Amino acid sequence: MSTQIPKQTDESTETDAEADAPSKGDERRAEKRRRAAERREERQAEEAERAAAAEETVELKVFRYDPEVEGKQEPRFDTFHVPFEKGMTVLDALMYSRDTYDSSLTFRHSCRQAVCGSDAMFVNGGQKLACKTQISELDEPIRVEPLPHAEVTKDLVVDMEHFYDQMEAVEPYFQTNEYPEGDLEEQRQTRENREKIKMSTRCIWCGACMSSCNIAAGDNEYLGPAAINKAYRFAMDEREGEDLKQKRLEIIEQEHGVWRCQTQFSCTEVCPKDIPLTEHIQELKREAVKNNLKFW
Predict the structure, then answer these.
(1) Which pLDDT band, with edges at 50, 70 and 90, does 10 fall under?
(2) C-alpha distance from residue 176 to each of 228, 241, 275 (Å)
């Protein structure tokens, strides 16, 4: 009589092994739990970093002046201690100071993206856009003042009327005598000409260049780098025509025009849009010279 091992024993063993192995669903759930744990750890690390940063403060010394309030008519500096956060700008710090400590603190701002040009200020001895200037890149205490060479209206706000008058003096808008034949046809411009004037079109009328110019500080009639740059933008546009270019050259080659520039490059250094202002002024000088050359 032969003895045989029952086959169901092997099948039973295999079934038990399969039962002990994790299912696909178990693996997915375990992976979700692992990812959730990682996310919790990341959040905790971020919160710890923010808490540590919140303990750091920056010292802000802000120029104050209010001619309409007794006791504030004498210029002074107020000190504010602002909790530092990564990515904080000078404008962020000023807004925090205004909203937390003194609601009367006055300054201009709008887009917060270095486009409107309204928040140009004198920060640590240089003309800068407050919304573009990182706190982490400045030495403390951070000294914030209104733009030099301009009348202060209140705190960090200056009167920009003279600056706008100089800009308007060069007729800063496109003019032409030649129009396309078709009503819906564009006034085309070559790629080369567009590249030539491209940088000059970036001006945001912030006034930083005018404030930095020593010539403008001493000559109230000087057109200034921003206005001359605007004249360059249109005088060098091939679509305006020679007669209109001649008219613009007559505006900028006057006594208080391009010839007052002493090539100090201060305007170029402070321009927040990196416009080569001094280079444009020198090129207009060359154009003015060629315009007055006569051969007979």
Answers:
(1) low
(2) 19, 6, 25
Supply 61's token pair: 């010394």
pTM: 0.77
Q: Residues spanned by CATH 1.10.1060.10 within the chain?
A: 161-176+190-292
What does the alpha-carbon distance between residue 68 and residue 77 come to, in Å, rounded to a whole number?
A: 17
In tens, the pLDDT along 144-173 reads 999 999 999 999 999 999 999 999 999 998
Over residues 54-79, the pLDDT tens digits come to 568 999 999 999 999 888 899 999 99
Token duo for residue 276: 């080569």
Is the predicted pLDDT of residue 22 greater than 60, yes or no? Answer: yes
CA–CA distance, 201 with 234 (Å, rounded to integer) = 9
Q: Which two tokens stand for residue 227?
A: 């206005």
- Mind spelling out the 3-state secondary structure of the chain? CCCCCCHHHHHHHHHHHHHHCCCHHHHHHHHHHHHHHHHHHHHHHHHHHHHHHHCCEEEEEEEECCCCCCCCCCCEEEEEEEECCCCCEHHHHHHHHHHHCCCCCCCCCCCCCCCCCCCEEEECCEEEECCCCEHHHCCCCEEEECCCCCCEEECCEECCHHHHHHHHHCCCCCCCCCCCCCCCCCCCCCHHHHHHHCHHHHCCCCCHHHHHCHHHHHCCCCCCHHHHHHHHHHHCCCCCCHHHHHHHHHHHCCCCCHHHCCCCCHHHHHCCCCCCHHHHHHHHHHHHHHHHCCCC
Q: Start-end ranges of CATH 3.10.20.30 in the chain?
A: 57-158
Q: 3-class SS at 108? A: coil
For domain 161-176+190-292, give the fold.
Answer: Fumarate Reductase Iron-sulfur Protein; Chain B, domain 2 (1.10.1060)
